[in-house]
């Protein structure tokens, strides 16, 4: 979210976030004010007599009181991420922009590490945590980040409004910010969004405070620990590819793709996660700037029940005129955003949906936080052993074993006398976090992690850096590799290859990396262990098919304890159980234009489609792929054979439509016309048998497909998942909730969600089970 250029801030509204309930940003004033010897808080004496300071009043009443006291000029000065002070009311300035994607990060001006707190726990990048397919883990990490965020706020080094999570769909493997997301699947991304927001805002039971109820913000009950923001709304997944940039890109999206791919994560984030913020994106959507799409913004409010504040991405309002030339003046851009429904919404709900409401819930107008809820949090709650262990567990659960010929791994500590690690990333802790990473507490490099197991561990970079544009270091690396019993080669990506404002043009390893891997594999005494770092998929077909490369692990960006997690995986301290949250495509996929937003395949123009739901081409590794040191088999224990929709509520709504490539008619029901969705829900109980000799944490993925499909239906879709602990040689039960209206439905070409009647197939790996939906 870096500003486009310095001149943007010459505009009086700065980063024009038009935090959509425009005038209210006032509520922000809390916190970080720069008094000479102490911080100044709202509602301290002599300003504590105002009604908005009265914590016994309903939130809505307090918010209306505050807005009514502001002059027009004062309201206008709130329309920025840096909200101005209102001295006469005792309100200090406030910085809305703080970042917390996978730990506290200084990407936004609200977080800084040059005070009492010098570092914060750096959890694995989101794409790796998503590979764990573990809701409990995601919620726990979000809660830990929130504790550190609130603690940093209490010492004046952060705000309380954070702009995470990133829940855009990882639509194209070249996207530089795909690493920030939970992957390519809308169901997986929705689940992550829900858990992050609930854990972060304090909706779950926790160690810090009692459970906070999921009540409406209107009744004033419940205080959030910190505020989360679902971004970037919507259809944003291109940063800078060839001549296309996120600032001017027009995402042309069909109604079908919008409703079944791009929108579900945001709907879930709002309806089930109860997010307090929504951020609109830079790009246009079908010719209109996303922040000026009144239909999309009002859908969030009126259909999904969104009650929070809406912010634009930094400068997203300014670029409507300056970069997109959509309007003829900056003033017209502001008018368009307001006419999109934001201003009207504000007038109808001052103190109802305003920022003040959320800041009141955050306790920003309750005086010195030390005297209130969460006020006891401080530096001792940051970089704790508990949070470090959680970061380690997240890396463990996310690491994906892609290849393990002849069970080369795990290594035996007593059978390896020496080890070498090759590759510039092998001894570099700066690479461990990926983008939006802060200052880690005690980072452990891969070299340090391995050296803890094998003291005779040597290192050679091989390449000067990750781009590896020279072979100058090859000779030295080969010499080091020759001398070791086992060689670990670290290859892949870093932020010079994939990042915000930087998309890739190739899916191959950068520069001369492939040649280095082959050179090391050729001279190593035993099969090479290849460790791949990076967020985006890489075409490593050469390594997959090379018998000299025995094992391959993908570790994403594993966070500050990544070195320890990788060493533990290689030496069998845990059983790898991560699964890929994205499809790994071959290099030939780069022929597909990244700016083509269509999800569905179109054979007539040689278009292969995108993601595991629609892609029809060859893959290097499929979505959900992941090996283990054990072998697993499955059995459906309890699943209904038939589901009956009560005829009294459906007979009038049964539709007939010519199916794709079939002659007979197809029966289906519009979801919004079914009154009995809850009655159709069921549990799929699945037996998971660990056939190996090692216990393991295992992710069970449940897919479905319909035997008779609406045109453009997914080939198959993820409908549920559960992470379970398994014991060697024994069976464990996984229990997955299935909501047919949500999970077994599809979206037609008109953008309406429908439930197809007839046979549906549930799938776990190669195991299939058929159930029938009938009237």
Characteristics:
775 residues; alpha/beta; five-stranded mixed β-sheet; 20 helices; globular; disordered N terminus
Total helical segments? 20
Gap from first CA to last CA: 50 Å
Tell the overall outline: globular
Give me the count of strands: 28
Which ranges are low-confidence, i.e. pLDDT below 50, for 5 or more consecutive residues? Answer: 1-37, 204-221, 343-354, 658-664
Give average pLDDT, whole number: 88
Structure classification: alpha/beta
Please summarize the sheet with the most strands. 6 strands, mixed
Strand order of the largest sheet: 11-16-15-14-12-13
Rg over alpha carbons: 26 Å
**Helix content percent band:** 10-25%
Keywords: Glycosidase, Hydrolase, Signal
Protein name: Beta-xylosidase/alpha-L-arabinofuranosidase 2
Domain Fibronectin type III-like: 698-768
Signal peptide: 1-33
